[in-house]
Amino acid sequence: MASPMRIIDLSRELYHRTPSYPGQPPIIHGVWKTHAEAYADSGNVHGNSVMFISMPDHGGTHLDAPWHFASTMDKG
Questions:
Q1: Domain regions of the chain by residue span
Q2: Which of these, 2, 37, 55, 69, could form a disulfide with 33 (CB 3.0-4.6 Å)?
Q3: How far is residue 33 from each of residues 1, 28, 48, 51, measured CA to CA in Å?
Q4: pTM as predicted
């Protein structure tokens, strides 16, 4: 019987202005609206806290890492 696959998490912490690959856009995140602001904007009917994130595919831990280690690299 094969042993179970071991998964190692190599994820890097993301924070506002996490260093990114040279020439790539920065990672940016923050609060779009607080609960109180959204509640007031809705005429005191409902509210929710809204966060946002913007990041390139090469920001932090690569989202496209498989492309760097497979034969698909020649086609990508």
A1: 13-56
A2: 37
A3: 53, 15, 8, 7
A4: 0.51
